[in-house]
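Milestone M4 deliverable, item 7.
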Amino acid sequence: MAEETTPAAEKPIRGAREIGNVYAIITSKGYALAQVIGIDSEWVAPYSRIFSKLYREIPKNIEEIIQGKEDYITLASIPSMARWRKVAPQAIKLGKYDIPIGVKKPEYTRCGETRDGIPIGGFSQWGIVAGYGAMSEWLCSDYWVTQVLKKSLYDESWKEDFLKLNETGYYYPLAVIEGLERGFSLATYRPTDFHKPSRELWREYFAEMSFNNKKVPRKYAYYNAGEHPSEKK
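Output delivered:
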């Protein structure tokens, strides 16, 4: 008879105690609220809901605000902003609040060519990443539209889905503050040529991606290699 064993206790996630905590981010234009909602296991870093409205003073109706819809979710160490600069903190911890039902880590995020957080590249330079994964798992945009959204490339509604995706990159505290001060939003974080009709966007996209001769949508862009390492035989 096999000896019964007791499964080992799971190792606690580093930083998990921060989940639910709300912070007031200090900017030169006022305070913005943020709530930690999880810890990314790959980056071992917190991701947080950001409420980009700036207040002259820390609002008193924090719970009401937190129960509302955030402006975006970002991978950034918001808690460190309150403790690593004790002389001049960049955030103030306000306490722990319930995370609204349905709020979770983004399933997919988007990334593209930017300079100082401002998009400078066209649509063909952008890609989709599962969660906050590695760039080697950059999904081709056509794969995301046809295989994930299950939509036609020429159904203009996919562009609305694209603009709802959060940004992929890890943000340092100063970048979070700068984004709030300049009014960063998911609606304006878009390819420079996104005003073009879908048919024109895809024509230019496929012209740049013509290295791949497969007749089915590519899954991984993998820096123009057309094939993810895990798919190689």
